[in-house]
Amino acid sequence: MRKFILAAATALFATQAPAQPSTPPRLLVVISVDQFSADLWDAYRPQFTGGFALFAAGTVFRNGYQSHAATETCPGHSTLLTGDHPATTGIVANAWLNQSLTRSDKYVYCAEDEAAPGTSSTSYKVSDLHLRVSTLGDRMKAVWPTSRNVAVSGKDRAAVMMSGHHPDQRWYWDGKRFSTDVAGAPEPRSVTLANTAIQRLLAAPGEPLQAPPFCMARAQPITLDGSGRVVGNGTLARAAGDAAGFRASPALDGSTLALAAGLVQEMKLGRAATPDLLSISLSATDYVGHTYGPGGQEMCLQLLELDREIGDFLKFLDSTGVDYALVLSADHGGLDIPERLRLHGVTDAARVDPALGATAMGKVLGQKLGLAGPVLIGEYSGDIYIDHALKPADRARVLKEALAAYRAHPQVAAAFSRDQIARTPMPTGNPVGWTLLQRARASSDPERSGDILVLLKPHIMPIPNPTTYVATHGSPWDYDRRVPMLFWRRGQAPAAPEGAVETTDIMPTLAAMIGLPLAAPAIDGHCLGAVTTCPAGK
Ligand code: ZN
């Protein structure tokens, strides 16, 4: 009997408090897989045998939330290592409009210095100046000046938002090579080697990937509405020198991970007296999703290859003997192409009505109100701006008419004014139940966000005519908000809490793991007790 009770008590304690290593890790490795939705994680999890399979044996939150409405790359990455929602980080979109800019392009890219002469939002000087808060790496360096804060990414904005204001090394793919905005230091040898190797890789054709039966089942050719393009059965092959094909293939992620491994070795990360942070953002999944949609053979090939690549990277980390802790999550999810969704019974899936474009809508409203000029500036959904050249009274008329017109459209779920969002208190608690207005509040800023926020109904793809990009994300719906949040450390018992958590919880959890006190101001996220021992009251 006593034995039975002991066994029962042991089992009980095992479920209440997973075994946790007693010493803090020396190296934190945070991986963001761009556009890796929780839907993809759920669908592919049984197929993984490499790096993702290792994560599946850690602490798995399959209901992680990028809980805000603006589910784009820059806002999403800004939540991962700051502990704050985009409304607090200031990164409310990939780009926002500033009508008082003196340059001709009035859009501001989230990771640029728009004051740099001769720049635009698409040809810019990379900068962290728009990020209003500190990252984990910034905070580590403030407490332990010898800690290293290193970021490697397929996109500049991901590297900037994950490392913040005080990176030691920050390298991102610029379309031709890995480059940096961190001035002064000599280029590490691993960067030179990686760039040389990539030039060779790019110069050669990319062979088609061999689809296993699981992927072949998804190889259904789909002709896209309004264009002759066929997707679904691609093999991610590319011609010699095809840089766009390179980035929409596992070769970009493999190169990013190879560079990360090189920097771990060269900088001896995790082997100093203070802990180090390595942030890695893997962008190819996002490019594959945009180019082919996330529901076909192409995404299957990408994810199985990425599984193998991450596995190789983790084997390399093991070979260094460093005690590391891992996190893997995503900046947002994604929506599949409506043409394929409809075949699978999602009958409301459609491409957006071109009449919802800000230019088209502004033209109609301008004629109705007798106003010249663009009237509205923006895209098919998200932030819509009213032309500041209009008189205040006319701007008020445009706002009233535009809100009514958007709200009356059958593809629109909601249209909110800037004031309406600003009056909404910042939401807290379980993100599953947040209203659309609360989701909007978590990614809005009175200076940067639009005069109107337009949210399309579920399964409405805001790309009217598919060309290069056929699918995207950016909605307030769970296919774009819900992402996996996976924690792994050697010696930690597996756990799979079902409850909802937020990506803003990652930073305080990692801070607790390495014993980093979080100085004021308070952050939006909370330390996760299922992963580590949290400080009292956090
Ligand atoms: Zn993204």
What features would you describe in this structure?
- This protein is an alpha/beta fold and 538 residues long.
- Helix content is 35%, strand content 15%.
- Strands 7-6-5-10-1-11-18-2-19 form a 9-stranded mixed sheet, sandwiched between helices.
- Helix 4 (73-80) runs parallel beside helix 7 (156-163), helix 8 (189-203) packs antiparallel against helix 11 (250-267) and helix 12 packs antiparallel against helix 13.
- The two termini are 40 Å apart.
- 54% of the residues are buried.
- The model is unreliable at 1-18 (pLDDT under 50).
- Residues 34-35, 73, 76, 286, 331-332 line the site of zinc ion (ZN).
Keywords:
3 domains; Alkaline Phosphatase, subunit A; disordered N terminus; 35% helix; single chain; 538 residues; binds zinc ion; nine-stranded mixed beta sheet; Gyrase A, domain 2; alpha/beta
Explain the layout of strands and helices.
Blueprint: H1 2-16, E1 27-33, H2 38-44, H3 51-56, E2 59-65, H4 73-80, H5 86-89, E3 95-97, E4 107-109, H6 136-143, E5 149-153, H7 156-163, E6 169-173, E7 178-179, H8 189-203, H9 213-216, E8 222-223, E9 230-231, H10 243-247, H11 250-267, E10 276-282, H12 284-292, H13 297-320, E11 324-329, H14 338-343, E12 350-351, H15 358-369, E13 376-378, E14 382-386, H16 392-408, E15 412-417, H17 418-422, H18 436-442, E16 452-456, E17 460-461, H19 478-481, E18 482-489, E19 501-502, H20 506-513
Parallel strand pairs: 1-10, 1-11, 2-19, 5-6, 5-10, 12-17
Antiparallel strand pairs: 2-18, 3-4, 6-7, 8-9, 11-18, 13-14, 14-16, 15-16
Helix pairs in contact: 4-7, 8-11, 11-13, 12-13, 15-16
The protein binds zinc ion (ZN).
